[in-house]
Design brief:
There is one protein chain. The protein is of the alpha/beta class. It has one domain: Putative cyclase (Glucose Oxidase, domain 1, 3-Layer(bba) Sandwich), CATH 3.50.30. The protein contains five helices and eleven strands, in the order βαβαβαβαβαββββββ. The chain has a seven-stranded mixed sheet, with helices on one face. The chain has a two-stranded parallel ribbon with strand order 2-4. The longest helix has 11 residues. This is Cyclase.
């Protein structure tokens, strides 16, 4: 999880981040086919509008979970990061969120949390991190490297991301899970009402001082 202080010194750190900001009504945007066809795919406004055509308007204060199909690529670094050079972040290739889509979610809908199954919503070659800058400046948390089961429904679940409270911390591994409103939507595939979305990869902990108690 990236807390607002990940980019903004005056934003919430992990100790002060209100628990309420880590829980929201969730939706899952399925872009697996687009990402399979283009490793550098960017989530678009058009895709979000098409999702609403099929599933209804995004709920207020929503957690938007983007399923790129990257869960199945872990832990193969070449498949997951799109490069053999794991030490050079700028060589990474994976699907991202376009700045236009992020702006649309802020200006036209009520985004609370962005979660996705790739290392970042921003492209590795853009060192300005525009989506991070846009969302974190508004105290919207970002949860990266989430294992998103393909059985997760398009809507009808509560998204939870429970971080460790670390004073001064801005990024941390997080236990992410969803509680389904209708257990029958995933019947016989996962335990009823409780769907666990475990982190795939370690998130760095920045500016670590001490555990908050």
């Amino acid at each position: 999880m990236d807390a607002p202080r990940h980019f903004y010194p005056t934003g919430f750190d992990l100790k002060d981040l209100p628990l309420e900001r880590t829980i929201a009504d969730g939706v899952m945007i399925d872009v697996r086919s687009e990402a399979e066809a283009n490793i550098d795919y960017q989530l678009t406004v058009e895709k979000l509008l098409a999702w609403e055509e099929n599933h209804g308007r995004l709920p207020p204060r929503a957690a938007v979970v983007v399923n790129n199909g990257w869960t199945s690529r872990w832990p193969d670094p070449l498949s997951f990061f799109g490069t053999k050079n794991g030490n050079n972040y700028t060589s990474f290739h994976f699907p991202i969120v376009s700045i236009e889509a992020a702006e649309w979610l802020l200006q036209n809908r009520d985004l609370k949390i962005l979660a996705l199954d790739v290392p970042s919503p921003d492209g590795a070659t853009d060192d300005t991190f525009p989506v991070h800058q846009l969302l974190l400046s508004r105290n919207i948390i970002i949860v990266e490297n989430v294992m998103v089961p393909n059985t997760l429904p398009a809507r009808g679940f509560r998204f939870h991301a429970a971080p460790i409270r670390i004073e001064g911390g801005t990024g941390v591994q997080t236990r992410v899970y969803a509680i389904l409103n209708d257990a029958s939507s995933c019947a016989n595939e996962i335990p009823p009402t409780f769907l666990l979305l475990l982190f795939l990869a370690a998130a760095a902990v920045f500016n670590y001082k001490r555990l908050a108690v």
